[in-house]
Amino acid sequence: MERSSSLQRLRAALFASRLDGLITVVLLAALLAGGQALLHWLVFKAQWAVIQANSTLFAIGRYPLDQQWRLWLLSVLLAAATGVSWGWLRAFPRPDRRARLWPANDRLAAAVLAGLALLLPLFLQLSAAISQRWWGITALLLACRWWAGRVGPALPAAFRRGWPVIWPLLYLLGMTLIAGGLGLPVVSPSRWGGLLLTLIEASFAILLCFPLGVLLALGRRSRLPLLRWLSVLYIEFIRGAPLITLLFLGQNILGLLLPGGFSPDRVWRAAWVLTFFAAAYVAEAVRSGLVALPPGQMEAARALGLPVHQAMLKVVLPQALRVALPAMVGQFINLLQDTTLLSLIGLFELLGTARAVMANPAFLGRDAEVYLVLAVLFWCCCAALGLGSRALETRLNSNPQPA
Hints:
Elements: H1 2-14, H2 18-45, H3 49-53, H4 55-60, H5 69-91, H6 104-123, H7 128-151, H8 157-162, H9 166-179, H10 194-220, H11 225-240, H12 243-257, H13 266-292, H14 296-303, H15 308-338, H16 350-358, H17 367-396
Helix pairs in contact: 5-7, 5-9, 6-7, 10-11, 10-13, 10-15, 10-16, 11-13, 12-13, 13-15, 14-15, 15-17, 16-17
C-alpha cells in the first residue's frame, strides 16, 4: 500500500500532464547522457597519478614525516568521540520518537564509511601500514558507535550531560598535537597545508565567530547608544568590505602595527580575519532570530521574576538561536568555502596546494582531476555541516510537523 502511494505521488509530480512528462523525459535523457560521459571519462580517460603521487600533500601539506604520528593519534581520538556521540544520539532520541540503534540512514552511512576505508587506500595506492591504520580508525568509529548505543542508557545521567565538554577539550588537545607544546616539538604553521590547514582555519573561525556574533547582535539591539552604534558600525563596515581586501589588510597592516614579538603568524592572522568577517554575518542571522520572536517572551520572563540578563540567556536567546540556526549554518558553509581565498595571500590550503601541484611540469594538463577531487572534498565537508545542522534542528524542534 505504501509503495503504491509513493508511486502515485511520483507520477503526480513528474507526469501530471503531457508537457510535464515530456520535460521529465528530456531532463532524464540529458542526465543519463551526461552521467554516462562523466563515468566514461572517470574510468577510461582520467589520469589519477597526480592524486596518487600528491595524496599526502593534499591531506597535510609539508607536515614533518617524523611527527605525523600526532595526526594519526588525533584521528583516533576524533573517531572514538564521533562514534560515542553518534551512538548516544540514537540511544536517546527525542521524546516523540522511539529509540532505534541502527536506522536505515545509519546503516547506509556505516556502509559508505566501510566502503571508503576499503577503496580509498587502493585508489590512492597507499602502503599497507597506512591502509591498515585507515581500516582500524573506521572500525574504531563504528565499534564506539555500537558500544555507545548499547550501553549508553546504563551510564549515569551526569556522565552523559558532561560528555559534550569533551569536544572543546579535544579541540584544544588537537591544536596542541598539531602545533606542538607540552613537551612536543613545535611544528611551524608554515609547514601546515592542504586539507589540514583548511579545516584548522575554518574550525577556528566557526568556533569564535559564533559567540562574537551573538554579542554583536545583542549590542546592536542594546538601549545604550554607544554600544549600539559601535555594533552597527562594525557590522556594516565588515559586510561592506570584500573578504579578500580584509585578508590583505590583515596580512600587511597587523604586521606593521604590532611589535615583532607580538605579531601573530600569517596563518593566525588569516584565521582572525575570517573570524571577524564571519561574526558580522552571524550577528545579522542572530538579530533576525531575535526580531522574529514576539516581545511577549521577554515580558513573560520578566513577569516570572527573572532579571533582564537571565531572561535573555534562558528564554529569549535560545529561541532566537533555534530560529537563526539555518542561516548561521549557511554562513559556516560559506566560511569553509571562503578559505579558498587564502591561496591568494600565499597560504597553501587545499586550493593553494592544488595550484602548486598543477604548476609541476610532471602534472601539466591534469587540472580536471585535481579540481574534481577538490570539489568532492569540499562537498563532503559542507554536506557534513548540513547534515549536522538538520539533525540539530530536528532535535531542537519542540513542535514537529508530520511529514
